[in-house]
Amino acid sequence: MKAIQYLSVCLMLAVLVTMGCATTAKGPTDLEALQAKTKEVAAVANAKDLAKLMTYIAEDFECPQIGDKASFKEFLDNAKDAGFLDGVEIDISAAKTTITGETAEVAPVAVRGSFGEGEAIFSTTKVKGVWMISAMDISGI
Predict the structure, then answer these.
(1) Distance between CA 141 and CA 138 in Å, rounded?
(2) What whole-number distance in Å separates Cα of residue 136 and Cα of residue 117?
(3) In angstroms, rounded to a whole number, what is the distance separating the alpha carbons of residues 1 and 46?
């Protein structure tokens, strides 16, 4: 009788271990999620979809050269209306992502346009589980 109980317990443990190994992963790592988000944001920016682009910008966004989120939106709207965004291309192919806890940096991001070419640095912060652009430095443009 004890042998049957012992065999039953071993069998249940084997089933539980197998089930644990067969479960799906918890989702992408922070690096994978941020790299996917970076590609998504670059595609939206290159499409000049400013309304959608602003959904990736954190409420406490800051850019030393432009200002806060509202100033950045105004800057982009004016630039688009004046035709300054025509031909502008965002290239993330050389960008590296460095994550430190709930913040990360994506750099260098190449920006090309009629003004020439330069590099930007983007800082991101994880807000309620979602990576958002919290800062941008365009002094290299």
Answers:
(1) 6
(2) 16
(3) 72
d(CA 21, CA 120): 43
Put residue 84 in one of left, alpha, beta given phi > 0 → left and psi -120 to 50 → alpha: alpha
DSSP designation for 114:
T
CATH number at residue 66: 3.10.450.50
List, for residues 94-133, the tens digit of each pLDDT value.
Answer: 999 999 999 999 999 999 998 899 999 999 999 999 999 9
Residue 89 neighbours by CB distance under 10 Å: 12
HEC assignment per residue over 31-95: HHHHHHHHHHHHHHHHCCCHHHHHCCEEEEEEECCCEEHHHHHHHHHHHHHCCCCCCCEEECCCC
Number of domains within the chain? 1
């939206």: which residue's tokens?
44
Q: What percentage of the chain carries pLDDT values higher than 90?
A: 77
- Domain of residue 91: give its range: 28-140
Pull the structure tokens for residue 27: 């989702």
Residue 119 inside a domain? The answer is: yes
